[in-house]
C-alpha cells in the first residue's frame, strides 16, 4: 500500500511537467526523419508555423523539380503562388489554444501535394507534438509527429 501511495504521488508531481501553455510549443520542431524543421511562432493570438530548415533545400530528383534548383512551391494549384520558396513558407495557420495541451481549428498546407487541410495539434510530451491534418472530420486524416 505504501508503494502504491508513493507511485501515485510521483505521478501527480510529474504531471505539471507535461502541462503546457499556449506558448510552450513555440520554436523549432523536427519532422519525421529530420527532413525539415518547422518553426512555430505567434501570429496574433494564434499559432502559425513556417519551414525553418530543409535538409535538402534544392531539388535532387527530376520528378520533384529541376535538379539543383532551390525548392519552390510548384505543386500549388494557384499559379501565382508556385514560385514561392519552400524555405520560409508558412505551412501552419490559425491554430487556437483549446486548453489541455491542445490547439485546434488550424489550417495546414502540404507543399509536397499542394493541398491544404484542417489541422489540430496536441502536446504529447515536452519534446513531442502530434500534428493532425484532416479533411472534414479528424478521423479522416494523418498524424505527423514533431520533436524538439
UniProtKB/TrEMBL annotation:
<feature type="domain" description="DUF2147">
    <location>
        <begin position="27"/>
        <end position="148"/>
    </location>
</feature>
<dbReference type="Pfam" id="PF09917">
    <property type="entry name" value="DUF2147"/>
</dbReference>
<protein>
    <submittedName>
        <fullName>Uncharacterized protein-like protein</fullName>
    </submittedName>
</protein>
<dbReference type="InterPro" id="IPR019223">
    <property type="entry name" value="DUF2147"/>
</dbReference>
<keyword id="KW-0732">Signal</keyword>
<feature type="signal peptide">
    <location>
        <begin position="1"/>
        <end position="19"/>
    </location>
</feature>
Amino acid at each position: 500500500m505504501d508503494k502504491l501511495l508513493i507511485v501515485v504521488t510521483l505521478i501527480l508531481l510529474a504531471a505539471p511537467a507535461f502541462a503546457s501553455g499556449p506558448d510552450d510549443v513555440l520554436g523549432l520542431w523536427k519532422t519525421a526523419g529530420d527532413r525539415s524543421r518547422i518553426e512555430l511562432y505567434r501570429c496574433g493570438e494564434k499559432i502559425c508555423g513556417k519551414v525553418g530548415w530543409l535538409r535538402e533545400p534544392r531539388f535532387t530528383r527530376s520528378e520533384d523539380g529541376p535538379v539543383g534548383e532551390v525548392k519552390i512551391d510548384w505543386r500549388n494549384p494557384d499559379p501565382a503562388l508556385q514560385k514561392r520558396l519552400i524555405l520560409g513558407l508558412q505551412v501552419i495557420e490559425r491554430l487556437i489554444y483549446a486548453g489541455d495541451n491542445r490547439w485546434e481549428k488550424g489550417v495546414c498546407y502540404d507543399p509536397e501535394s499542394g493541398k491544404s487541410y484542417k489541422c489540430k495539434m496536441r502536446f504529447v510530451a515536452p519534446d513531442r507534438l502530434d500534428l493532425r491534418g484532416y479533411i472534414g472530420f479528424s478521423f479522416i486524416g494523418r498524424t505527423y509527429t514533431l520533436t524538439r
